Amino acid sequence: TNVYPDNFIDDAIRSDIEKGRFTSVHTRFPPEPNGYLHIGHAKSIVLNFSIAKKYNGKCNLRFDDTNPEKETDEFVNSIIEDVRWLGFDWEDRLFFASDYYERMYELAVRLIKAGKAYVDHSSAEEISRMRGVPTEPGIESPYRNRSIKENLELFEKMRKGEFAEGECVLRAKIDMSSPNMHLRDPIMYRIRKVSHFRQGDKWCIYPTYDWAHGLEDSFEGISHSICTMEFEVHRPLYDWFLNQFEDLHHPRQIEFARLNLSHTVMSKRLLTQLVTEGHVDGWDDPRLPTIAGLRRRGFTPSSIRNFCHRIGVSKVDSTVDMAFLEAVIREELNKTAERRMAVLNPVKLVITNYPEDKVEMLISENNPEDDSAGTREIPFCRELYIEADDFMEDPPKKFFRLAPGREVRLKHAYIVKCQEVIKDAQGNITELRCTYDPETKSGGPEANRKVKATLHWVSARHAVNAEVRLYERLFTRENPLDTEEDKTFLDYINPNSLTICTDAKLEPALKDAQPGKNYQFLRKGYFCLDSKYSTPQKPVFNRTVTLKDEWEK
Ligand code: ATP
Ligand code: MG
Ligand code: MG
């Protein structure tokens, strides 16, 4: 399961190696540092690093930092942390596209000298209008036939900051009647008088994606430049630029379908909006599909890698159901998570015939799926907590849990019978008075007596007070971008996506819970310690997933 399953990209790579087009495999993951990584990026990360590994090749981490406006060091650092956390290592091959600006500039000058690029003083609107529509030839810019000498002078002035933003651009001179709009004299440089987070004010012209990306790949000796399908129509341009320079290494671009997930959004623009407008609690909000959010939620690196392997790679766009991502982590945690008892919404249960001072230490296996996980002791005594909704004073027919006069088993302990319900002045239940049958202890003579329910519980005297956070999907719509009239994706935010249980009671073994470790709370799901809000005084736990797929019910 550690080898990425073969797909059409393998076919291309093997054929390239066989034909000698490349002697080794070298890929890259090229994020723009303008946001945090999400599960869609994970698909690309896993693909690129796994392919390199499979063919004994290399994979670079390269920041595609070519837009000064929205890029920051915070985003760079989060991306580095997330790729590493996912389990991948770029060794000493961490690169920044902005370090190549000078080389790119020199190549642009060469293109001008070859008569293949020109400075255009048309406005953005004019350029767009002259490009026209794919079915008819476009119109050539009046600046298209400037002399090489004039273009060289103007381009240098652009670099020196002698023109205002938007006053002119550098364009490649390709084909204004190409049916592929990307070949109708694409823009190579724009003027942006904005500081770059790494380059400061050194540059005021910035390369476009199409001009920069192939060069970045080429400079780094990339063999296979793997990107998402929307770049398929850009591939002729990718190849055109590299074909202008005989001395440059020429990588092969291969496209695959991006990951779409139901009930969420993944574009960085929309994630940024959710974060900056405060709809969620930062980029690492456990409801977000960001790697940082999934980590806080309790997803493991192996579950995300496994998910990426199992969804596969194709050229056809599709949407993966969020339920599948949840099923993958659930399946893993069932095997690996230690079991604990935790009462999320407590009501007190007092065993009136159990001695006041007595404490029994009950032994329980930590994980029935894994003998090596060992056992632990759980204290049992006279006063316990159970879930408030495991009791009903006036139960309907199908309610089999605790009710007046009824018996239930307490997990790992005894059968108890509810004798009396105590209420406060407002009529709220404050205490359930029960009796226990000492013969019914697990392993005892009456242990096998049939009762309809087994409840989890926590000893009141030993309980750890905690906050427990339950999450549901952030959006009520399968595709929040498929909106009704006058609505935006924000209108489909699920108002119940976060429930906070402020008065949870945990068994004492959970005092030692560590961040990054997962637990199954019996009957309640899989949980982990929250890395952001936990304190030694009040631990906070996040529910990763429920035990069963409740959404589908
Ligand atoms: P967005 O559209 O959200 O801004 P992006 O593609 O511009 O995303 P980049 O930082 O440029 O974000 O992405 C880095 C790499 O991750 C690119 O190679 C891109 O193709 C890939 N990637 C981004 N989103 C997805 C996705 N949903 N599925 C697969 N790969 C993705
Ligand atoms: Mg991009
Ligand atoms: Mg982008």
Automatic annotation (TrEMBL):
Cell location: Cytoplasm
Record flagged with keyword Aminoacyl-tRNA synthetase: yes
Binding site for L-glutamine: 64, 209
Reactions it catalyzes: tRNA(Gln) + L-glutamine + ATP = L-glutaminyl-tRNA(Gln) + AMP + diphosphate
The protein's enzyme class: ligase
Start and end residues of each Glutamyl/glutaminyl-tRNA synthetase class Ib catalytic domain: 25-334
Record's keyword terms, sorted: Aminoacyl-tRNA synthetase, ATP-binding, Cytoplasm, Ligase, Nucleotide-binding, Protein biosynthesis
SUPFAM superfamilies attached to this UniProt entry: Nucleotidylyl transferase, Ribosomal protein L25-like
EC number: 6.1.1.18
Listed HAMAP family: Gln_tRNA_synth (MF_00126)
Protein name, as recorded: Glutamine--tRNA ligase
Organism in which the protein naturally occurs: Rarispira pelagica
Name of the coding gene: glnS
